[in-house]
Inverse folding.
């Protein structure tokens, strides 16, 4: 019964997410060019494809993914490398391969591949007795596994996804339970690096400009100065959200324009049309969805699956907090989409693949207990 309740709450949440997503994207048609008028139909198509992917992974695909996880990880890294040479620049970033009118973003698949690869590496380590030397080797492996796609993704540049990579690693390390001294050393090194970078940023910007292209520096500058800068996007987002009031301007009646209403600022699009009550409804669905994932992580499941759930929850929770927070001016604008709501084929299909993984693990918990 508990397994069925988790399945039901997740499936109902996804159905509601899909309705909110397609309606919200439809309401952006007034602000987009003619060539982008059918994005809501594309989103519906991506949900259908994503559902097929989720069903396949739920039934038997996840075992195949785990079996060949490292080959998949290597393959996606190769795609990230090719992207730097053959990707089409959009707004100064080479994040997508374009095939006709569709685009493909390898970093979205890397988020899943990284979670699984890190989890399988940790599982192998925990399956035997280990010394301090083994712990050090494990940390080195995990760091290298995370660093390779991080460098390739940063060079696109896509700093938001890089943050997700390292947050995924950090969440797993917290639950890994290594010797305390490794945490002290890691935190000390991280603080030293961050403080050194901030010192360079404050006292020697010219040095950073010499080692970083202007596009990279612009993105870092926007992140570090988010509290003191207003910005056109944020001002319009706040106008749309606050102007909608309790019930919003009404379906397809938003008078406020802001850039990227179908992706980065989809929450502002939705809230301006349906108001505070609409936003509250969406947040309640997100909380129910997140709670279902947390309940699964508390069950008795095998080691790799437990860390996979931890990584998935971290990735989704950060995406939700970051996207909603940046539209409200509470967090810097990093271009992170709102999971299951923002327009995007690669991101949506990857998120639906995650649903397949969650449902598969939930199904396997009964076998594991018996």
């Amino acid at each position: 019964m508990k397994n069925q309740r988790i399945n039901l709450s997740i499936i109902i949440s996804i159905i509601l997410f899909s309705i909110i997503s397609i309606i919200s994207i439809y309401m952006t048609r007034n602000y987009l060019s003619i060539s982008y008028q059918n994005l809501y139909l594309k989103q519906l198509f991506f949900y259908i494809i994503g559902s097929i992917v989720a069903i396949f992974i739920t039934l038997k695909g996840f075992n195949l993914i785990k079996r060949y996880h490292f080959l998949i990880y290597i393959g996606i890294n190769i795609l990230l490398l090719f992207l730097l040479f053959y990707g089409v620049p959009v707004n100064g970033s080479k994040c997508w391969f374009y095939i006709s009118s569709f685009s493909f973003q390898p970093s979205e698949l890397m988020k899943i591949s990284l979670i699984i690869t890190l989890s399988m590496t940790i599982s192998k380590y925990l399956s035997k007795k280990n010394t301090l030397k083994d712990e050090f080797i494990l940390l080195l492996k995990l760091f290298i596994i995370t660093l390779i796609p991080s460098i390739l993704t940063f060079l696109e540049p896509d700093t938001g996804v890089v943050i997700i990579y390292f947050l995924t690693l950090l969440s797993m390390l917290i639950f890994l339970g290594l010797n305390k001294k490794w945490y002290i050393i890691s935190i000390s090194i991280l603080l030293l690096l961050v403080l050194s970078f901030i010192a360079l940023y404050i006292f020697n910007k010219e040095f950073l400009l010499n080692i970083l292209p202007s596009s990279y520096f612009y993105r870092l500058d926007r992140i570090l100065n988010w509290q003191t800068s207003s910005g056109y996007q944020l001002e319009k987002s706040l106008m749309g959200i606050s102007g909608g009031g309790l019930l919003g301007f009404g379906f397809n009646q938003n008078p406020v324009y802001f850039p990227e209403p179908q992706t980065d600022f989809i929450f502002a699009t939705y809230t301006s049309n349906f108001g505070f009550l609409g936003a509250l409804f969406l947040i309640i669905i997100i909380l129910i969805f997140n709670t279902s994932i947390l309940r699964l992580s508390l069950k008795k499941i095998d080691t790799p699956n437990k860390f996979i759930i931890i990584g998935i929850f971290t990735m989704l929770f950060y995406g939700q907090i970051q996207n909603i927070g940046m539209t409200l001016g509470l967090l810097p604008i990093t271009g992170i989409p709102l999971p299951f709501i923002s327009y995007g084929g690669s991101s949506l299909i990857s998120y639906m693949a995650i649903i397949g993984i969650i449902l598969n693990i939930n199904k396997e918990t009964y076998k594991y207990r018996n």
In short: The mean pLDDT is 86. Residues 2-369 form one domain. The chain has one domain: 2-369. Strands lie at 97-99, 102-104.
